[in-house]
Specification:
alpha/beta; TIM Barrel; 2 domains; binds pyridoxal-5'-phosphate; 21 strands; nine-stranded mixed β-sheet
């Protein structure tokens, strides 16, 4: 559920009209709903209540510091994959005691920064990385808490680029390798093994892969747990699917909780999770303006002012993003509303010089006029976080709506911003 609704023929975010935000802050514009973010965290907490999980919001999904502040306000920790993501948390003065740090290529500088800032643990992805963390921590006179990220060789049935738990993927240690490595950890002075971790992919819409992965991880956990390796944490990663194409399509978190419950019980460990997309995807829209209504040869194009640099998911993963005019008498069909009567079959494309620059293809949209606004739904996760300056386009502004109030949480970049670093040298 989210808080984007049509009222009196126009789209509102919580208590604020989208047209008012576009007028005030310009387009393209990311608009977040604080109420939706909070609701999604609450849904996860309720579904997994029996296990009282440590929820670590995955910063990579949407890393704006004001969103991170909101998350910290809900008592949520963080999953980071770079020193830069951790820097955002530290710089904002947010707690680091529930920060977990994954990623296959942590550098010495990043490891040192994480230890200095007292994170909860590293999710270790290889034996050489483990040795490096051990070396750095010993050099600092510290012991770093770690979890081994296990690659359970489970197909998460998602896009190939967002599958992370198969042997052909670069992530984690195989079960055999993790077993072998666990035998060496007790003799390392710079690290202590606090848990096991598995993250098998993103936009997962079936509970079975989680259940299978966790059963395998828990088997290993029970096998290697000992006095010197107490393994207090079982981290199931993130990956819960968000609704993109319909309000009914994605699975409820209760289904994931039900499927994984037996393994979690068996582990006797504290459950952790790292949701990103589930929390933030449907908590934002990207608002764009129709620039040109172009009749091509056998193809109609709505050329809008947002492109693949602003939202790359359609181009990168051929991902579906719901698109609908901001002025409309009905909810969009992908949100339970009606098809557009006498609508226009079109490709919604951006201004970037690539044929792969599209937000939606072969969409039936109501007829729109140049200058009209449209909303791209489900844009909160891997939207602004993956935006770039390609074609020297300044990145969009971001706005956070909370009830009937709204505020800028990232100003729009300018042409001056584009050249600032080059002119500084
Ligand atoms: C280690 C780890 N945890 C959590 C996540 C968050 O995934 P999602 O946004 O699908 O929940 C990712 C994303 O790739 C990840 O790599």
């Amino acid at each position: 559920m989210d808080f984007f609704r049509y009222e009196d023929g126009a789209l509102k975010v919580e208590g604020v009209a989208v047209s008012e935000l576009a007028e005030r802050y310009g387009t393209p514009l990311y608009v977040y709903s604080a109420g939706t973010l909070e609701h999604h965290v609450e849904q996860l907490r309720t579904a997994f209540a029996r296990h009282e999980p440590v929820i670590c919001y995955s910063v990579k999904a949407c890393s704006n510091v004001h969103i991170l502040e909101r998350m910290a306000g809900l008592g949520v920790g963080f999953d980071v994959v770079s020193g830069g993501e951790l820097y955002r948390i530290v710089k904002a003065g947010l707690p680091t005691e529930n920060v977990v740090y994954a990623g296959v290529g942590k550098t010495e500088v990043e490891i040192r920064f994480a230890i200095d800032n007292g994170i909860l643990m590293f999710n270790v992805e290889s034996e050489p990385e483990l040795r490096e963390i051990d070396r750095v921590a010993r050099g600092m006179g510290k012991k770093a808490r770690i979890a081994m990220r296990v690659n359970p060789n489970v197909d998460a049935h998602t896009h190939a680029y967002t599958t992370t738990g198969k042997h052909e993927n670069k992530f984690g240690l195989t079960i055999e390798k993790a077993r072998a490595v666990s035998g060496k950890i007790a003799s390392m002075d710079g690290v202590s093994l606090a848990g096991l971790h598995a993250h098998i992919g993103s936009q997962i819409t079936s509970p079975e892969p989680y259940a299978t992965a966790l059963e395998r991880v828990v088997d290993l956990m029970l096998e290697i747990r000992s006095e010197s390796l107490p393994l207090e944490y079982l981290n199931m990663g993130g990956g819960f699917g968000a609704n993109y194409e319909s309000t009914e399509q994605a699975l409820q978190p209760t289904e994931f909780a039900k499927a994984t419950g037996p393994a979690v019980e068996r582990s006797g460990a504290r459950l952790m999770m790292e949701p990103g997309r589930y929390v933030v995807a449907n908590a934002a829209i990207l608002v764009s303006r129709l620039l040109y209504d172009k009749e091509g040869e056998g193809k109609h194009f709505y050329i809008v002012d947002a492109g693949m640099n602003d939202l790359i998911r359609p181009s990168l993963y051929e991902a579906y993003q719901g698109i609908w005019p901001v002025k409309s008498e009905t909810e969009p069909p992908f949100r339970g509303g009606r098809e557009a009567p006498g609508g226009v079959l079109c490709d919604v494309v951006g201004p970037i010089c690539e044929s792969g620059d599209f937000l939606g293809r072969d969409r039936k949209l109501p007829a729109m006029g140049e200058g009209d606004l449209l909303a791209v739904y489900g844009a909160g996760a891997y939207g602004m976080a993956m935006a770039s300056n390609y074609n020297s386009r300044p990145r969009p502004a971001e706005v956070l709506v909370d009830g009937s109030s709204h505020r800028l949480i990232r100003r729009r970049e300018t042409w001056e911003d584009l050249v600032r670093l080059e002119n500084e040298v």
